[in-house]
Every structure is written in C-alpha cells, then in structure tokens.
Design goal:
Layout lengths: L6 E5 L4 H12 L3 E6 L10 E5 L5 H15 L3 E6 L14 H29 L2 E6 L12 H21 L4 E8 L22 H12 L9 E4 L9
The structure holds NADP nicotinamide-adenine-dinucleotide phosphate.
The site of NADP nicotinamide-adenine-dinucleotide phosphate (NAP) has 28 residues, from helix 1 and helix 3.
C-alpha cells in the first residue's frame, strides 16, 4: 500500500513498540490516530491522540467516533499493538489478572477491528496488523494466560484474513521475540536489556509489511534477537 496521506489507527502508543510504529508511520506521511490509555510525550501535526482503554468497548466506540469526526471514516490501517503480560504460576494467578489480559490482548482487538472493517471494505483496501508474540506460537512456563491470549490472536488473525482477503483487506500477524520495551517493568525477575530486539527495528518490519504491493500478502512474521544473551 502507498502509505502517504493514509489514515492509520495504532493502539497502545505511549511507549515501547507502539510509539516507534507511530513515529515511523509519521515519517512515511501517514496521518496517525493513536488510541491509548496514556498520551505519549511528543507532538506532531499529523498525530492525533484519542484517550482509550481498548479493554473497554464503550471507550473504543468513543475513540472511533471522535477519530471519524476529526479525520474522516476512511481509515485504511489498523495496528493492534496494545497488550501486556502478567507472569506467574497458574494456580496463584488472580482471576482479575487473567481476565484483564484477555480483555486487552484479545477482546480489545475485537472491539477495534469490527469498527474499522466496513470503511476498508468500502475502499476495497485495508491492512490490519495484529501484534502477537512468539508466545503465540509455543508454550512458556509461568505465562499460561499471556500465551493463551497470543495464541488467540493468531487464530483470530488467520480466520479474519480468510474472511477479508476478497475485500482487498490484508490481516497480518507479527510474532516478536523479546523487545527492549517497558513490557518487562512489572514482571518479577525479568528485565529488558540491550540484547533484546530494539522496538524501532520491529516497527520497521511492521511498516515494510504495510508497504507491500496490494496483491502481495505477508501472513505471518516471526522475528527474534539473533543473540538473545549477547556474543559468547
Ligand atoms: N516487549 C516484548 O518482548 C514483546 C514481545 C512480543 C510481543 N510483544 C507485544 O508487543 C505489544 C507492545 O508491547 P511493548 O513491548 O511495547 O510494551 P510496553 O512498552 O509496556 O507498551 C505497551 C503499550 O500498550 C499500552 N496498553 C496496554 N494496555 C492497554 C489498554 N488496555 N488500552 C490501551 N493501551 C494499552 C500501554 O499503555 P500505558 O502506558 O497506558 O500502560 C503502552 O502504551 C504488546 O501487544 C506485547 O504483548 C512484546
């Protein structure tokens, strides 16, 4: 897709991967609506922030209405990036932590995506990119809930691409390994470090996936740090 002057919605834009995606899209001339709980500490004439907890459907509905009022309904790109993980043995995980991961990482994608599909169908062009994780491809001890959410993202994405491909809409999924972001801030015993991937590099892969020819569809992208523990 030619990106210049297209309108994109990106969720979870205050920091980490989402913020890097926003910055790169703006460099490409995209008009970006950032939907998030926390406003990023930066401004740009083509960046518009809409306060929104993606786990709350009423807030997503309002962000959508406000975005259409400000930028029009012709939104061609959706990056479902907002997400988080809570670690711990399953038997000691609280029900609220378990449910809140699913509310954001899975139900949030449903709330955002269903609103943006009709305009993409009308334009016969659109790209929805869901940020999963390598935790969406295999099991991880002490991360059963998070892994469950990201496996759900994979299944939803694959089903949706089959549903939407004939309408000119691509649904791609990225499965990153560890990225040096704030994701690990609340995870005991795990700290982000320099041997993880850099969020700007993952953002670049995402934007390159968007820039492909209309009939060239990248279904899945798996990326990992080459040397996750540094040079031996
Ligand atoms: N870091 C990794 O190693 C890694 C690897 C694979 C996949 N991922 C995935 O990458 C995505 C981005 O994570 P990150 O690594 O960039 O982590 P991060 O630095 O913690 O950023 C997460 C972003 O998501 C936002 N967010 C979380 N819950 C939200 C909600 N309910 N509604 C709206 N915004 C919400 C956060 O907003 P606040 O500032 O308000 O909290 C923040 O802007 C996630 O889906 C994560 O699962 C990360």
């Amino acid at each position: 897709m030619e990106l210049k002057n297209k309108v994109a919605v990106v969720t979870g834009v205050s920091k980490g991967l989402g913020l890097e995606i926003v910055k790169l899209l703006l460099e490409k001339g995209v008009i970006v609506a950032g939907w998030g709980r926390t406003q990023p500490d930066f401004t740009h004439p083509h960046f518009h922030f809409f306060s929104c907890d993606v786990a709350d459907e009423a807030q997503v509905a309002k962000a959508y209405t406000d975005t259409v009022a400000a930028l029009g309904e012709d939104i061609r790109i959706l990056i479902n990036n907002a997400g988080f993980g809570v670690a711990g043995a399953l038997e000691s995980m609280s029900t609220s932590d378990w449910k809140s991961m699913f509310d954001t990482n899975v139900h949030g994608i449903f709330y955002t995506t269903k609103r943006l599909i009709p305009a993409m169908k009308a334009a016969d062009e659109g790209h929805i990119l869901n940020v999963a994780s390598i935790a969406g491809l295999n099991g991880v001890a002490n991360f059963a809930g998070y892994v469950g959410t990201k496996h759900a993202v994979r299944g939803i994405s694959h089903s949706l691409y089959m549903e939407l491909r004939d309408y000119g809409i691509k649904v791609s999924t990225i499965y990153p390994g560890s990225i040096q972001t704030h994701f690990f801030d609340d995870i005991p015993g795990m700290d982000a470090h320099e041997h993880m991937m850099q969020p700007a590099d993952v953002a670049l892969t995402i934007v390159q996936t968007l820039e492909t020819h209309p009939n060239y569809f990248v279904v899945d992208v798996e990326c990992r740090p080459l040397r996750p523990k540094g040079k031996k």
